[in-house]
Design goal:
By secondary structure, the protein is of the alpha+beta class. The protein is built from 13 helices and six strands. It has a four-stranded antiparallel β-sheet. Strands 5-6 form a two-stranded antiparallel sheet. Mean pLDDT is about 75; it is low at about 75-80.
Length: about 350
Amino acid sequence: MTFYVSGMHCSACVLLTESELGEMSHISRVRSSLHSQTIEVTGMFGDKTLEMIAVELTAPLKTHGYIVSAEKPGTTKSGIGKWSDFRIAIPVAIGFAIVFVLLQKLGIVNMVNASNVTYGTAFAIGIVASLSTCMAVVGGLVLSMSATFAKDGDRVRPQIMFHVGRIVAFFILGGVIGAIGSAFTLNVSATFILNLIIGMIMLILGLNLLEIFPWAKKLQPSMPKFIGKYAHGVAKLNHTLTPLLVGAATFFLPCGFTQSMQIYALTTGSFFHGGSMMLAFALGTLPVLALVSFSSFSMNGSTRSGVFFKSAGLVVILFAIFNIINSLVVIGFLPPIFDF
């Protein structure tokens, strides 16, 4: 049977919905589609109606901000709500941009300049990513792992190990990507193309977070789904080193923000700069993920989730435009526009 799912923004949402529903004992197969906003479920439901099954499927997903329905949700009422969120989202995004520019001017954010993207910029992108649904799957991993270890009364240690494993893995694996980049001689044109790809990926991510351009979901790139499923499966293992492995596995999850930073790490051509770039990004995601770890916090389930996602989307679009313009400046297509 096929149902509609509201609240899906990215490939991480596909992985999370499939993983959660796949754990239900009477369901044998689950397949989510970001493009059509649907989920196809195969299982034993007896004589239950579609509406009853939709309620049953919503139960494990509601905490993550997803609603399952038998009929396609109407657009009139939700559309009004979506546009009304911009009254708050636009000022928030502008305020974030102003603060970021001021910090750049003061030299606080611009800690080290690695071409167009600074470590401070990577940190800020990490913050935005942690507030978006691209990090929902990481939060789901944390909660799943927590439930596994909570049965033995061990709550704090696994969380600490998870975050340590994540931060260390992002530095080491980011460094490996940077070192791989050093094996290739990237001329100005190649660097421009990679930076343009980064900007376009971020632009697509931002448009998806706005929830007003359904066609943008078809453009979003993602890692093979099986990689994320393996990472989610590791979280179910009850072993001393599991939290470290789960933290390291988040490097391979289908998050467009992570992928864009990984591409940039490749352009650094340096183990240290590539690793430091990914480390800055991971540290940016740390505050919200730590909040998820030690509380029941869920951005997806918040009544103001629309405002959060639209604010994040606008900020990401600003970063994308900034990166694209800087890339055009580097190749001499445009004169310098930003002096910060």
